[in-house]
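Before going further, learn to read the protein records used in this course. A complete example follows; check for yourself that the lines match position by position.
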Amino acid sequence: MGKLIKNHWARLIVLTAAVYQIAAALEGFFWPKVFWDFLTTNLDPVVRPVPVLQILNLLFGLLALAWEWPLPAFEFAESVMHRSIEARLVVYPLSSLAALLLYQGTNPGIYYLIAMGVYFWAYSEGEVVCPEPWALPRRRSRSGSKV
C-alpha cells in the first residue's frame, strides 16, 4: 500500500468546508443568526442589519476554495503562498472562527479544525505541497548500494 499524503487529504477536507461555508454564508443572508445567541445577544449587530459575518464567511470560503483548487489561468498554483502549509495554518483558524460564529456555519468550522490538525500533522512530518495541484512529490534519489 502507498503512503498517505496528508496535505492532499487536508485539501479535500478544506474544499468540503469551503463549499459548505459559502452555502452557510448565503443562507445566513436570508436567516441571520449567531450561533451563540442562546448565551448572549451582544453579537447580534454582526449579522443584522449589516451582514458583516455573512460577508466574511463568503470571502473566507471563496479564498479557501481558490487556495485549495487554484485555476491555472491565475497562476496561483505556482506561487509560494499556494505551496505554504504555514500560511494555511495561519489563515484557516480565522476561517474557522468566522464559520463557528455563524449559526449555519458550525459544521464547516469543525471541518476547518480537523483540516488544520491534518495540515499540522503533514507539516510536522516534513511534507511539502507540490507546485502543481494534486501532483505527487518526487522521490529523493537514493545514494549508496541497495541492501
Remarks:
- The mean pLDDT is 86.
- Residues 20 and 85 are 22 Å apart (CA to CA).
